[in-house]
Amino acid sequence: MAVDLAAVRQALAAQRIETPSWAFGNSGTRFKVFAQPGVPRSPEEKIADAATVHRFTGVTPTVALHIPWDEVDDYRALADHAASLGVGIGAINTNVFQDDDYKLGSVTNPDPGIRRKATDHLLQAVGIMDATGSRDLKLWFADGINYPGQDDLRSRQDRLASALREAYGRLGEHQRILLEYKLFEPAFYATDIPDWGTSYAHCIELGERATVCIDTGHHAPGTNIEFIVAFLLRQKKLGAFDFNSRFYADDDLMAGAADPFQLFRIMNEIVRGGALDPAYGINFMLDQCHNIEMRIPAIIRSVLNIQEATAKALLVDRDALARAQAEGDVLEANAVLMDAYDTDVRPLLAEVRSDLGLDPDPVRAYLRSGYQEKIVADRVGGRQAGWGA
Ligand code: PSV
Ligand code: MN
Ligand code: MN
């Protein structure tokens, strides 16, 4: 077999996944938020939970913030707090969707005063990146319209482009924009950035430091996400993932839970494109909500699911695959891919973890650690942070 196992081990040890601060907070659906005991009461406690995930997985050294959910007076001090726990601040996510002013849109709103307010929030987020050392400004806009004729589709694109241009112009040399898209919700008739093509076109207009973020839950059912990955990699315009999984819409379930084969196909294109190495610059983030399950072990499980999909992708015998493809041997090409997918990679990952000095079974190690009991006992009272705050 033409697979270099030492290189596979090395790639798995070097893999990096970013956790989202909001996944540690209470969340729910529009029907009910089920509060959990031990939930973080502050951005500092969310970061402590993220650091705990890193302690058990060894591959999650950064945590993404969402502003204003993670608003603090002193962002430099927040970054120092993160560093003292062994993690760094990842992407800064903006929030221009939870304010009455944004009923008809944020940066695309017909009212120039509201557009100014939304754009100022994007600029404020770059200030937070300066203070925390974050590289990535992650933008998702809930903007869109519910009824044909409600607003002018094309003017909204112009307004969007102009806000993006201003934010891009404010970036430092080593900072970049990650532009997320979403098919629908909360807008139902037309979303202003509904798909990768729209995001891609805006990124092209902006320049080199603007790239697309693929949230795996933001497509129509049946969309071939790995094709989008392959296409954007070829164009050097893939900047990030928001990993989660879905059965129906934007379910935000644990990555790989609903469709581990899709996750494998995505990671296969990443490996094929030479984009797994952190030096390539893709930010592999989670964007999940854990409404009914314990959060920290659910986040660890998501990380393990991504690692398993990655390990399988690394085990694809690329020479055998290329040969079968060149010969037009449809069945053999498919069999080569499926051989890798059908491999049980858990023993390999357990070895990689042991080599890194980690427990080979991070979920069980966490549950044994006493951390959960400690946060349940310690975190009483106070304001709960995150969704549903
Ligand atoms: C929107 O559905 C989204 O995927 C964006 O990334 C938001 O910032 C995030 O969810 C909040 O969970
Ligand atoms: Mn997302
Ligand atoms: Mn989403």
UniProtKB/TrEMBL annotation:
Alphabetical list of SUPFAM superfamilies matching this protein: Xylose isomerase-like
What's a BP term from Gene Ontology annotated to this protein? rhamnose catabolic process
Keyword check for Phosphoprotein: no
What keywords appear on the UniProt entry?
Cytoplasm, Isomerase, Manganese, Metal-binding, Rhamnose metabolism
Q: Which domain of life is it from?
A: Bacteria
Which InterPro entries does this one have? Answer: L-rhamnose_isomerase (IPR050337), Rhamnose_iso-rel (IPR013457), Rhamnose_isomerase (IPR009308), Xyl_isomerase-like_sf (IPR036237)
Please name the Pfam families in this protein's record.
Answer: RhaA
What are the recorded GO MF terms, alphabetically? L-rhamnose isomerase activity; manganese ion binding
Keyword Disulfide bond carried by entry: no
Recorded hits in PANTHER family, A to Z, give: L-RHAMNOSE ISOMERASE (PTHR30268:SF0)
Record's protein name: L-rhamnose isomerase
**Species the sequence originates in:** Couchioplanes caeruleus subsp. caeruleus
